[in-house]
Amino acid sequence: MRNRGKIKRLLRRTGWLQVAKSQVDNIADDDPRFIQAVKEYTEFHPDLFHRCCRKHNGVMGTHDGIIGPGSEEMFGSDRCGEPDRPVFGKPAAATAEASARSWKKGCIPGWEDVHTFVVDVDKSNMPAFLGAKDDPNSIMEQAWELMRLSYWNIGLAVLRSDIDSRYASHVNSRMTFTNLRGSTIGLAIVGNNPKCGSTIWMKYDRGYSPSDLVSEWSTLFRHEGGHNVGLSHFRGGTMNSSILRGLDDPDQWRNDPAFGQLEKWFTGVAVIGGPGGGPDDPPPPTGGTIHHFTGPGQEAWDKDGNFLGSLTIGLTPPPTIGG
Question: Which residues, listed in sequence order, are joined to residue 201 by a DSSP beta bridge?
Answer without folding.
Answer: 174
